[in-house]
């Protein structure tokens, strides 16, 4: 599959999800890391974790395809941790999403939340900021 098609599908998922990670619901950025950091008061060193990635719900190694139904937008942190140390069997997306959201509520998931003392990036009006973030994308 071409990288261009995957990028297009990631972009579509990013927009459909209102710039929020499929798993943790944190705002993500696509193109301008520094501007995203400024707009949201997040140290630039932490924003790398919020980069938007294409996440295959059914992994490519499990014959998952590059289709709109199989690709969601996930932050780099969530995408990497779903697969870390599990080359052969990552948790299914529904189970993983439940685990991630529970940990987000406890403030024990994302380094950005831990650093800023927030439980979720959607707290404090961040959903309304999603539109602004996508404009800087």
How would you describe the overall organization of this protein?
Mean pLDDT is 82; it is low at 121-137. With 137 residues, this protein is mainly α. It has a single domain, classed as Orthogonal Bundle (DNA Binding (I), subunit A), CATH 1.10.30. It is globular. The protein has helices at residues 3-16, 33-40, 44-47, 76-83, 93-105, 111-116, 126-136; strands at 52-56, 71-75. A two-stranded antiparallel sheet has the order 1-2. It starts with a helix and ends with a helix. The protein contains seven helices and two strands.
Short description:
The protein has 137 residues and is mainly alpha-helical. It is 47% helix and 7% strand. It has one domain: DNA Binding (I), subunit A.
Query: How many beta-strand elements?
Result: 2
What would the principal axes of the Cα set say about the shape?
globular
- Low-confidence runs (pLDDT<50, min 5 residues)? 121-137
CATH class: Mainly Alpha
CATH topology tier name: DNA Binding (I), subunit A
> How big is the Rg?
14 Å
What strand line-up does the widest sheet have?
1-2
């Amino acid at each position: 599959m071409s990288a261009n098609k995957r990028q297009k599908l990631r972009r579509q998922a990013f927009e459909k999800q209102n710039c929020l990670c499929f798993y943790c619901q944190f705002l993500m950025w696509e193109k301008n890391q520094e501007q995203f950091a400024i707009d949201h008061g997040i140290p630039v060193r932490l924003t790398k974790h919020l980069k938007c990635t294409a996440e295959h719900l059914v992994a490519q190694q499990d014959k998952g395809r590059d289709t709109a139904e199989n690709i969601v937008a996930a932050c780099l942190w969530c995408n990497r941790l779903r697969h870390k140390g599990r080359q052969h069997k990552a948790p299914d997306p529904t189970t993983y999403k439940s685990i991630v959201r529970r940990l987000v509520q406890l403030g024990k998931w994302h380094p950005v939340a831990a650093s800023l003392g927030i439980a979720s990036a959607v707290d404090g009006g961040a959903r309304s900021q999603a539109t602004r973030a996508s404009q800087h994308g």
